[in-house]
Amino acid sequence: MGLSTHVLDTMHGGPAAGMSVALYTTDGEQATLVRQFTLNHDGRSDGPLYDNNTIKVGTYRLVFDVAGYFKAKGVKLPEPNFLNKVALDFGVAHTDQHYHVPLLVSPWSYSTYRGS
């Protein structure tokens, strides 16, 4: 299956439909944009970000536009807001395995883990 992501809005108790996300490959401090997308009604991308045939061993970054999402939902955020964009840097060591990178997020906190 390759690489996938899923975002849950813990403030509202549901998927973060409409959140903007960017995927990068990274090499040290350098990041190269692979694609930008908007999460669907289930808080997921439409299809895998990479499948097992195209993902490579290496390092990646997912950047989630948390502030933009919550502002669009009508949440009154302080200026400057606590979380703006959440960047998750992670490594892929085994291209024959599935890497699922979920994000649980509110305007004030987030959590992630390697899912299945």
UniProtKB/TrEMBL annotation:
Is Hydrolase there in the keyword field? yes
UniProt cross-references to SUPFAM superfamilies, sorted A to Z: Transthyretin (synonym: prealbumin)
Q: Which UniProt keywords apply?
A: Hydrolase, Purine metabolism
Tell me the GO molecular function terms.
Answer: hydroxyisourate hydrolase activity
Reaction catalysed by this chain? 5-hydroxyisourate + H2O = 5-hydroxy-2-oxo-4-ureido-2,5-dihydro-1H-imidazole-5-carboxylate + H(+)
Domain Transthyretin/hydroxyisourate hydrolase, first and last residues per copy: 3-115
Q: What is its EC number?
A: 3.5.2.17
Q: Self-association or partners: how does it assemble? A: Homotetramer.
As for family, the record states: Belongs to the transthyretin family. 5-hydroxyisourate hydrolase subfamily.
Tell me, what does this protein do in biology?
Catalyzes the hydrolysis of 5-hydroxyisourate (HIU) to 2-oxo-4-hydroxy-4-carboxy-5-ureidoimidazoline (OHCU).
Query: NCBIfam families this protein is in?
Result: hdxy_isourate (TIGR02962)
Name-wise, this protein is 5-hydroxyisourate hydrolase
UniProt source species: Variovorax robiniae
Gene this chain is encoded by: uraH
